[in-house]
Every structure is written in structure tokens, then in C-alpha cells.
Amino acid sequence: MKKSLFKKAWDLFRKFQMTFSQALIEAWKMAKREILIKAYNKIPSTKSLQKKKLEAKKLWQAIETITYPWRSHLVTNNSGAAGYYGIGKYNGD
């Protein structure tokens, strides 16, 4: 795992032109997120485990990385202005 973390960090360092320490932090977040996704997928989709599965999904979705930022426009917004103007924020103009 240590080798793969450094390899991911090096790729991020070259691709996004960030410091290597920032790249290591991002690589660690990505690895943690991947582990949480694997754990989430192992939880059976039964009625009794729905709450546990939902909590596990929230854990890995909460981790923001450079390659997977949380995008607010993916959240359903039912306001009329958002429906009319699309993804952009309504500023009253």
C-alpha cells in the first residue's frame, strides 16, 4: 500500500503541479475513499441493513479529493430559479 500511495502521489504531483506533501495528502484521501467504497459494496442490500449502508455511503462521499470533488450541482434542487437557470446560482438579475 505504501508503494501505491507514493506512486499515486507522484502522478498527482506531476499532473496537477502541486507540492509533493499536498499530493501525498490527496493520495491518502483517495486510498481511504477506495477502501470505504469496497467496504460499502460488501454490505448486503437487504432491508435490515439499509441504514448501515446509507451511513457507509455518506462516509466515502464526504471525502473530497482533487479527482472527486463534492459537486453541489449534483444535489437535487427543487427551487424554481434553479430549474429555470440550470446549474448556475440564481442571483436575482
Structure description:
The chain is 60% helix and 0% strand. The chain has 93 residues and is mainly alpha-helical. It has a domain at 1-62. The longest helix has 23 residues, at 20-42. 6% of the residues are buried. The model is unreliable at 70-78 (pLDDT under 50).
Fold topology:
Layout: H1 2-16, H2 20-42, H3 50-61, H4 80-85
Helix pairs in contact: 1-2, 2-3
> What is the number of helices?
4
Low confidence ranges: 70-78
The helix/strand class is mainly alpha
* N-to-C SSE string, H for helix and E for strand: HHHH
**Mean pLDDT across all residues, rounded?**
76
| Global geometry | elongated
Strand content: under 5%
Whole-angstrom Rg: 18 Å
Total beta strand runs: 0
* Main sheet makeup: none
Features:
93 residues; mainly alpha; 4 helices; elongated
In short:
This protein is mainly alpha-helical. The chain has helices spanning 2-16, 20-42, 50-61, 80-85.
